[in-house]
Amino acid sequence: MAEQAQELTVSDEVAIQINNMNKWYGSFHVLRDIDLTVYRGERIVIAGPSGSGKSTLIRCINALEEHQKGSITVDGTLLSSDLKNIDRIRSEVGMVFQHFNLFPHLTILENCTLAPIWVRKTPKKEAEDIAMHFLTKVKIPDQANKYPGQLSGGQQQRVAIARSLCMRPRIMLFDEPTSALDPEMIKEVLDTMVELAEEGMTMLCVTHEMGFARQVANRVIFMDAGQIVEQNEPEEFFNNPQNERTKLFLSQILGH
Amino acid sequence: MSDTHAQSVAFVRDTMIPEQAPPASEAGIIKWMRENLFSGWFNTILTLVSLYFIYQIVTSAYPWFANGIWTTSSLAECREALDGMTGACFSVLTERWNQLLFGFQYPNDAYWRPTLAFFLLIVALVPVLYPKAPRNMLIFTAIYPFLAFWLIWGGTILIPIVAMLGFVGGYFAFKQFDHQSFAMGLLAGVIAAVVVWWVGGFATGAAPNLLALEAVPSRDMGGFMLNMILGTVCVALSLPIGIVLALGRQSHMPIIKWICVIFIEFIRGVPLITLLFVANVVLAYFLPPGTNFDLILRVIIMITLFASAYIAEVIRGGLAALPRGQYEAADSLGLDYAQSTRLIIMPQALKISIPGIVNVAVGLFKDTVLVSVISMFDLVGMIRGPILASTEWNGVYWELWGFAVFVFFIVCFSISKYSQWLERQLATDHR
């Protein structure tokens, strides 16, 4: 499987360019001098201990968090405080959250059609067709008329993925998508993500699923204390880590 | 021996046990009584004592109701008819029925107008209150306020029509410019509405008698009708204003935020009754001399402001209860502020706030009787003033106040029951 993932093409086109980005929460320096270039079609897994700033990093990319210094360019659009730019970037960048964050007052189908109808101005019928297409893709078309509360965690997370895909994003951000799930359900979500990766989606994924990283990622980034400590191809990263902190982390996470 | 043992330990279930009904002794009225009324010697004594009190109350109140006199025209006649027996003089209700409902100055031959307005109100409320009612009934709901105004206040039908056209024109102008930005749409809508009203002003001036009903001035409104007018209008207006205030209080724009905070905190710090006195007396000093600013309108403004501050706080509670993830999910999909507020945040925040909003609405409806202290003759004002002060009915306290209690209880209890039903309807989380 690892070889198959390697075969996926990564283009030279830059999807995300982060230069010397810094962020503070009050006086706490969460992200320090982050430099990162993501090429179209890349599948990047971001790992690291909790509090290392990995979630904050990907949340800066679609401006859920504001950065104070440096620049982020997504799809050629510079992220500034201009609301128009932010909304444009957000509609191009899909995000999947740890706690799914489905809208509990809307059905599964409505969850998926809402943004296409209101942001993309897609006609309702067409939006529903798109939604059913992606719900079929994540293998839950038969739940379309239920409410999120009636679904299992794994199903909800797959709906959340489908909801993002309905906006036809060019980049997908995953913020610990499997951390709130039972072991039985992690697999179904990961399968969906693997499938997505195989189609060439640009993905940034914060996760502790090292198996997923080995299988799908073409780059693993290790963060600690708000900095990128190490990044490498998965084989090298797992078999031959360089930084002491990385070694310690890997020994703890893969120790049993 | 060991074989048998192994068989009893190793176990593979091949059929799952289906769900079964509980045994008969665990259901029904007997179980309920045993659990709730006679679960121990102490509770049994309490039950028996309570039954005794209920018996006493019913036996003493029953003849009062049963012997009630419904047809006399004064308290003296009623006493005579009772001839020393215990009995209620309900005839005050029948004799003064119209006064209790409409006040003592509303023209008699026009009673059908507020009555019709009341029944049409029920029709207009159906699509608002029941999500499953046909959606095109909302058109009638939109027309209703203007229709009701015409029915109750009378005058030419041109006034409500022009008022309505102003709103319609404003709406279309808003739709036209809403694509550019919400603020642009709002501005265009307001301008269009003002233009329509200004032009319409000439039309009503030119034909003041077109389809005119007999005009009834505001000071002639009274009775329970006045409570209904104030209650309905103020609840209907304070909800949207409350929503705007609650959102404003959460705004990141400091000026908007502080305006809302100061308004809410000021209103909450002032008793309603002082605001009503302000409406009644003080406001007149600030208005240019000669302007006759309708008293009901002034009272409506004050009660609305008062209730909207409370509703704003209730809704703020609902907003605070929403997980941050909902805002983030809406943001991450590219919805702008207006869209995410309207489609994601408000539907959920309002649902959480229903009990609080209903609490305010019920309180507001009951507070409408406070207008009786600024000499308006609502239901309480009518009872306290013209009816109890009359020579015929001086001293009929129980029947009149009992009636007022009954009427308000019916309305408020219905509102409360409705809100509980609505909460169940909107429960989609199934947790």
Automatic annotation (TrEMBL), chain A:
Transmembrane segments: none annotated. Keywords: ATP-binding, Nucleotide-binding, Transport. Residues 16-250 form the ABC transporter domain. The keyword Zinc does not apply. It comes from the Bacteria. One of its GO terms (molecular function) is ATP binding. InterPro entries: AAA+_ATPase, ABC_ATPase_HisP-typ, ABC_transporter-like_ATP-bd, ABC_transporter-like_CS, MetN_ABC_transporter-like, P-loop_NTPase. The keyword Transcription regulation does not apply. PANTHER family: AMINO ACID IMPORT ATP-BINDING PROTEIN (PTHR43166), PHOSPHONATES IMPORT ATP-BINDING PROTEIN PHNC (PTHR43166:SF4). Belongs to the ABC transporter superfamily. This is L-glutamine ABC transporter ATP-binding protein /L-glutamate ABC transporter ATP-binding protein /L-aspartate ABC transporter ATP-binding protein /L-asparagine ABC transporter ATP-binding protein. It comes from Marivita hallyeonensis.
Automatic annotation (TrEMBL), chain B:
It is a multi-pass membrane protein. One of its GO terms (molecular function) is transmembrane transporter activity. Its main location: membrane. SUPFAM superfamilies: MetI-like. It is found in: Cell inner membrane; Cell membrane. Residues 224-419 form the ABC transmembrane type-1 domain. It holds the Pfam family BPD_transp_1. The chain crosses the membrane at residues 41-65, 110-130, 137-152, 158-174, 181-204, 224-247, 259-283, 295-315, 352-377, 397-416. GO terms for cellular component: ATP-binding cassette (ABC) transporter complex. GO terms for biological process: amino acid transport. Keywords: Cell membrane, Membrane, Transmembrane, Transmembrane helix, Transport. It comes from the Bacteria. The keyword Oxidoreductase does not apply. Belongs to the binding-protein-dependent transport system permease family. HisMQ subfamily. PANTHER family: INNER MEMBRANE AMINO-ACID ABC TRANSPORTER PERMEASE PROTEIN YHDY (PTHR30614:SF41), MEMBRANE COMPONENT OF AMINO ACID ABC TRANSPORTER (PTHR30614). This is L-glutamine ABC transporter membrane protein /L-glutamate ABC transporter membrane protein /L-aspartate ABC transporter membrane protein /L-asparagine ABC transporter membrane protein. It comes from Marivita hallyeonensis.
